[in-house]
Automatic annotation (TrEMBL):
<dbReference type="InterPro" id="IPR050213">
    <property type="entry name" value="GST_superfamily"/>
</dbReference>
<dbReference type="Pfam" id="PF14497">
    <property type="entry name" value="GST_C_3"/>
</dbReference>
<dbReference type="InterPro" id="IPR004045">
    <property type="entry name" value="Glutathione_S-Trfase_N"/>
</dbReference>
<feature type="domain" description="GST C-terminal">
    <location>
        <begin position="76"/>
        <end position="198"/>
    </location>
</feature>
<dbReference type="InterPro" id="IPR036249">
    <property type="entry name" value="Thioredoxin-like_sf"/>
</dbReference>
<dbReference type="GO" id="GO:0006749">
    <property type="term" value="P:glutathione metabolic process"/>
</dbReference>
<comment type="similarity">
    <text>Belongs to the GST superfamily. Sigma family.</text>
</comment>
<dbReference type="InterPro" id="IPR036282">
    <property type="entry name" value="Glutathione-S-Trfase_C_sf"/>
</dbReference>
<protein>
    <recommendedName>
        <fullName>glutathione transferase</fullName>
        <ecNumber>2.5.1.18</ecNumber>
    </recommendedName>
</protein>
<dbReference type="InterPro" id="IPR010987">
    <property type="entry name" value="Glutathione-S-Trfase_C-like"/>
</dbReference>
<dbReference type="Pfam" id="PF02798">
    <property type="entry name" value="GST_N"/>
</dbReference>
<dbReference type="InterPro" id="IPR040079">
    <property type="entry name" value="Glutathione_S-Trfase"/>
</dbReference>
<keyword id="KW-0808">Transferase</keyword>
<dbReference type="GO" id="GO:0004364">
    <property type="term" value="F:glutathione transferase activity"/>
</dbReference>
<feature type="domain" description="GST N-terminal">
    <location>
        <begin position="1"/>
        <end position="74"/>
    </location>
</feature>
<dbReference type="InterPro" id="IPR004046">
    <property type="entry name" value="GST_C"/>
</dbReference>
C-alpha cells in the first residue's frame, strides 16, 4: 500500500487490512517521492494498492474490493446500494471538512471552519446517529460492513482536522466508534500505527 504519512484516504484501507489480518507493506512516501513517481503511474492518485503484480487505485474502489474479500459487503444488490450510499455520504463529509483544513492560514480558513462546525457537523452527524439507531447499532443493513470501517477512519481524520472530539453530542455514534476500535486486528493497529503530523498541510506544500 502506497500513501503519505497520514491517515487520510489511506487509513480505511489500512484498517480493513488490519481487520482481515492481511499482511502488507505500509509504504509512506514523501512529497518529493510522490512528485517523482506520479507521472509514470496509470492514475496519478494515491492511495495505490499492489496485489500479486496488479495495481489498484482510488481509495473507495480499493475498499470495495477488500470488502468483498472480507465479507464486509452487502448480501443483495439493495444492501450493496445502501452501503454505497452511506460510504458516499461519509466521503462527502470528509471532503467538506478537508476543504477548510487544507486552506492556508487566514480569515477565509477561519470562516470556513466556523461553517463546518455550525453546519456541516450537525448535518452529517445527526443523520448518521439516526442510521445507527435504526440498524441494530451499525450504520447500515444491521451488520458490520465496510461503511462502518470507513466511518471509524473518517471520524478520526475529521477530529484530527478540527482538533476536537466531535461525537460528544451523539451517544450512539460514540458507542459505535468505541466498539469499532476494539475489533480484532483494528485494536492492535490503532495502538501501533504512526501518528499523524502536527499539520498535514506540510505533506503537500
Amino acid at each position: 500500500l502506497t500513501y503519505f504519512n497520514l491517515t487520510g484516504l489511506g487509513e480505511p484501507i489500512r484498517l480493513m487490512l488490519a481487520y482481515g489480518n492481511i499482511k502488507y507493506e505500509d509504504y509512506r512516501i514523501s512529497k518529493e517521492e510522490w512528485a517523482a513517481m506520479k507521472a509514470g503511474l496509470e492514475w496519478p492518485h494515491l492511495p495505490m494498492l499492489e496485489i500479486e503484480g496488479k495495481t489498484l487505485f482510488q481509495s473507495m474502489a480499493i475498499c470495495r474490493y477488500l470488502a468483498r474479500q472480507l465479507n464486509l459487503n452487502g448480501r443483495s444488490n439493495w444492501a450493496e446500494t445502501q452501503i454505497d450510499m452511506t460510504v458516499d455520504a461519509l466521503n462527502d463529509f470528509r471532503a467538506k471538512v478537508a476543504s477548510y483544513y487544507y486552506l492556508p492560514d487566514g480569515e477565509e480558513r477561519e470562516k470556513k471552519k466556523a461553517v463546518v462546525l455550525s453546519e456541516v457537523l450537525p448535518l452529517y452527524l445527526d443523520r448518521l446517529e439516526k442510521q445507527v439507531a435504526n440498524n441494530k447499532g451499525y450504520l447500515v443493513v444491521g451488520k458490520l460492513t465496510y461503511a462502518d470501517i470507513i466511518f471509524l477512519s473518517f471520524i478520526e481524520y475529521i477530529s484530527y482536522m478540527l482538533d476536537k472530539a466531535i461525537l460528544e453530542k451523539h451517544p450512539k455514534l460514540k458507542e459505535h466508534h468505541q466498539r469499532l476500535k476494539s475489533l480484532p486486528g483494528i485494536e492492535s493497529w490503532l495502538k501501533t500505527r504512526p501518528p499523524n503530523p502536527d499539520d498535514a498541510r506540510t505533506l503537500f506544500s
